[in-house]
Each structure stands twice: as structure tokens, then as C-alpha cells.
Input
Amino acid sequence: MAAAGPAPGAARGPAVPGDRPLTLPLLLPAWAVIGVFLVVPVGLMVVYSFLTQGFRGGVIWEFSLAAYDRFFLDRGLFGDEPPRLEWTYIAVFWRSLWQAGLATLTCLIVGFPTAWFIATRPARSRTAWAFLITVPYWVNLLIRTVSLRFLIRDQGPVNQALIALGLTDAPIQMLNTDFAVQLGLFYSYLPFMVLPIYAAVERYDFALSEAAADLGASRWVALREVVIPSVRPGIVAGCLLVFIPSLGAFLAPDLLGGAKTYMIGSLIEDQFKGSLGNWPFGAAVSVILLSMVLVALLFYARNQAREGRA
Amino acid sequence: MAEAAVVVRDAVKLYGGVVALDGVSLSIRDNEFFTLLGPSGCGKTTLLRLIAGFERLTSGAIALHGQDIADLPPDRRPVNTVFQHYALFPHMTVLDNVAFGLKMRGVGLAERRRRAGEMLEMVHLSGFAGRFPAQLSGGQQQRVALARALAPGPRVLLLDEPLSALDLKLRQAMRVELKTLQEETGITFIFVTHDQEEALTMSDRIAVMSAGRLQQVGAPREIYEEPVNRFVADFIGETNLVPVEVGAVAGGLAPVALPGGAVLQLAAAPGSEGRHHVSIRPERLRLAPSGAGQLSARVERIIYKGTDLQLVARMAGGGELHVRIQNTARADLPPPGAEVGLVLGEGAARLLAD
Ligand SMILES: Nc1ncnc2c1ncn2[C@@H]1O[C@H](COP(=O)(O)OP(=O)(O)OP(=O)(O)O)[C@@H](O)[C@H]1O
Ligand SMILES: [Mg+2]
Output
């Protein structure tokens, strides 16, 4: 008899675990984790955003759209005059988007060359460099952010150095400015930019750069036409990893920014602080923020899917 | 005579302490299919990369059509390369890959699409323009790499073992295609391989390299028939290296004493008296009855190789001799242990310089 080929309809290639139906007991831990840490908290948040504000914090279990009404509309849906868009909170979102976008851009501009530098070191020192990038992360973010306050305040070492060098007569105000927030965000999230790009550049085949040069591309053109498209998944991942936490950050804006740099993170934080808070409103702002992040992630997923096909 | 396409003079390349090229001088003619042949690590890729501009000479000079290019970066050299692992741009379609060099030269979109399409037609890949490299077989990728390197119209094409990743059948077909392409386009091909059969069948001239030095440069027939030293004789094809005693040279000839006493008159350079080796190709030896012929030996074993048989015999002096016998299905071969004579045909033995 001739050697039998695979039976028609038989699975080809190694079986992926997900292909096989798992028995219920094996699935339970995964469901429990997803349920306890994902579905329940997010569900609670959504539910709270539709409840009535309690006296001195907390909620009253009565359905209400007041939180969303407060966020989006001036004078309220149910007043005498026609409702108008409320700009206060949209402006906070806009400012946060701006700050997060700018921080992401700064991280990218600094992080890409850094990642490139690390990835092009000899294999042995490469790991050491990547390791060094993560060292500051052993210290708690709060402590690092507070330390920045001391560094850049009017009597801080930075201003003292500037005065000593004769670059300025009076201290330059850095604390409580947009600059300070940018510095804080940059310092907090730079490694999240460097590490994914590093991983992508390390996998990059440098023969492609040679091929580009061989075909007449200068270094800059090769960077634009060949290198960046090749490592783009790393760049996109890095940007998301910096942008998303920057958008909801509250430590840097709280501790380093001024009144004008009020960001989403602080807005949410304030709703749950003390007796002046408004839980449903805080939950609603969180839901809106989460929706925005989800949209960004959907773009990313579509991007990845296209990449996978290519 | 046509102007040389590439001239390399006293090229030395050091990588730290490693000598990759140790004083190589070469002149490659226009329209020539020129092959760099040698064992792994002998410096073939290094020489190619120096011509392409990816490496800088430690000392020496390289000229392209009379112009010194030692200081030109790769993107300004009018040569293109087919890389060993193709190095196709994974994020571009086949058409965009092929059009890339034209784009870099400022050719407009419509024109470069048209020309890239022509190139794809030439390598029989017209239907694949919209695919990505990952969706092609190895042989197809190889053709795309070839089309991409040819599209900008280089006068010199560098190819680094372009066929080594292909299976035997495809490799043989591509040899013919490459050779035809080279003849049709008239582009100078500088082709790197460590496969001597590939070198012999495709090249106009071959440079045999070893340990960063050129051993011999010549047409395939010259390299095979008239190897200058033991390395070349041994590396190209199969050969028997037989130690001999060379007598006084007179008029370009010298008496050469084979083990067993027979003396041949062979071409010899003045001053080559003393102990040397001759190279005797296995297909140039003929079996004879014991006592006949210039060499005598005892049959050890016979190896079946399909188109021919290889007879391994041991000479009286102890050395091994390989004899190739055409497999004509006749059964009159001597059994192992038999004493045989071996006849050297005209020009079968060549005296080597070292
Ligand atoms: N970047 C480098 N750094 C250090 N040594 C190198 C480098 N590139 C090549 N060499 C050394 O130079 C010598 C010649 O290398 P080359 O790559 O030219 O050999 P090759 O003839 O192409 O061999 P193969 O047939 O294996 O490709 C080798 O000894 C190699 O180890
Ligand atoms: Mg090589």
C-alpha cells in the first residue's frame, strides 16, 4: 500500500493549545483571574458612573446621568435653556492629550537613538546597557518624582548651578510649569520607549541597510525608507506604552505642575479625595479615558494585523 | 584591448589582528564573468565588500573603469550587489523592491514601475509584483534580488554566493540563467562561490584564493589543466598528488622520476630541481596489466559512483592513487588485491611549483 498522506480534514502543523477544547476545571483559574481583576473592577466603574452622587463621597444606588451631564454639558439637559457643550473638562482632556503626545514625542526622539546605540553594541555589553536603562525603576515612582521637585525648585541644585555658571542672575522658575510636567513624564516613561525599540532594532537585519546603500540610498534616506519601516512595530509599541500612562498620569502633574497643568489623572484623583469628591463623576471620567485608550489600542491592533499579513 | 572594469592593486584588509586580504592584485575585464573561488574564510566576501564599498581598504587601491573609488561611499558607487541571503526589504512589495534603486536615482513613479516590471519579466516573475518577499520561495526571492540589483543598470554586478541557498536542481537551472543573462546584458559579473563546479561551468575567468591571497587567475580550462601549485590542483576537481624527483631542467623540460622508477619529461621552470609533486587527474590514468605503464600499484577497493567507478590503489612506495573508470557495465575490473599497471596519457601529469 502506498504511504498514507494526512487524512482529509486532519489538522496540519503542530496543534495550538487553544485549538483543543480545554476542560472546565483547567479554564477556571484563567476565568477567575480575568473576572476578579478585569471584569469586576471595570464593571463597577461603569456602574458607578451611572449612579447618584452620595453625600460626602460614596454613591446612592439610584440611576443617574448626572456625571456624564456634568462632563459634557453646560446648564444641564433638564434646565430651562437649551443645553450647551461644557468646555471645562474637554479642555482638561485636550491638555492631557497634548501633554501626553508631547512627552511621547520627546521620549521617541531621545529613545530611538538610545535604543539604536544599545542594540548596536557588541552582544555582551548590550545586555548590560539595557539593564542600566531599567535601574532607576527599582526606585518607587513617587520618590523619584518628589526628588525631581527638589532638583528643579528655585533653590535647587539646577538653578544654583545655572547661577554659579553665570547663565542667569535670578533662579528660573521650573517647578509648577508645563516644562516640569514634561520632564516628569519623560523621566517616568522613557524606558518604555527604549526597550521595545531596542528589541526591534536588535532583530533588524543590518544587511538591509547595506542593500539600501548599495542601491543608492544615503544614510538618512535608508533610515527613512528601510530602517524605520522595519522597526516600526517597536516604535508603535513604545509610543503606546508611553502615551497611555502619560495620559492618565497624576503624580507628575500633581507634584511638578502648576494650576494650569491640571490633567485627567488629577481630575479623577480629586473626585475620590476627601468629602468634596464626586464618585460617579470620577468613574465617568475614567470610563471616557478608558474608551479613548481602547480606541488607540484598536488602531494598534489593526496595524499589527496588517503587519502580520505583509 | 577593452578598458578594465575593476582594477584592484595590492589590496590589504585587516580586521583587528585578522588578515582577511593579504596583498591582492586583480584586473577584471569589461563584460567578463569573473569568479572568486576559494575555501571558506579565504577572503572572497571581503574582496567583494571592498568593491561594493561596505568595507574600507587597510591599504591598496581599487579603481572602477579607471576611476579611483577607494573613498566613495557605497551609495555613490555604480555597482550593485546580489546578497547571499538576498536582503530583500520585507515591508515592500516585490515591485517596490525592484524599483528601489531607480527611486533613489530620482526616476519618476510611472517610469520606474515600468522598468521594474520589465526586470521582473526578465527573471520570469511578472505575476509576483504585488507579493511581499516572505510570500516567495527561496528561488523566487533570489530572482527578485537579481532583478533589484540589475534594475539601476549597473556596469558591474557583484554576486556573493547567490545560489548557495538553493537546492541542487534549482541551482543548476539558475547557473544557466545567470550565464545567459550575463551574456545578454554584457554586464561585468563578479561572482563569489566556493563551489568549484559552479565556477568552472559559468566563468570566463576564475581567481582561486586561499588565506587572503590569490593563488591563480585564469580561464576554467587553464585552472583545471595547468594548476600552478598544490593548493589549486587539489582544490579544483580531484587529483592525485604524487611526490617526484626532478632532474636538471633544460629547454623548459626536466626529467621527472616517479615512484617506481619511470621517468617522464615534463615542462618545468628553471631551477625546479629536487623534490616536488606532480598532479595526475584520476580520469587521465588508464588501467593496464601488471608491469605495463609508468606506475604500478595494488588495487585496494572500488567505489561505485553512478556514472563512473573510482578505483583506489596503493603504489609500491606507499602513496594512494585514485583512478576514474567510466561505468560501462563491463565486468573486467581487477579484484581487490590484484597488481595493476597504470598508463599516464599524454599530458596526464603536471609538475607543480611547490
Ligand atoms: N567583520 C569581521 N571582523 C573580523 N574578522 C572578519 C570580519 N569579516 C571577516 N573576517 C575574517 O576575515 C576572513 C575572510 O572572511 P570572508 O568573509 O571574506 O571569507 P569568505 O571567503 O567569504 O568565506 P565564506 O566562503 O565562508 O563566505 C575570515 O578569517 C574571517 O573570519
Ligand atoms: Mg563569504
Remarks:
- The radius of gyration of chain A is 25 Å.
- The CA atoms of residues 34 and 40 of chain A lie 9 Å apart.
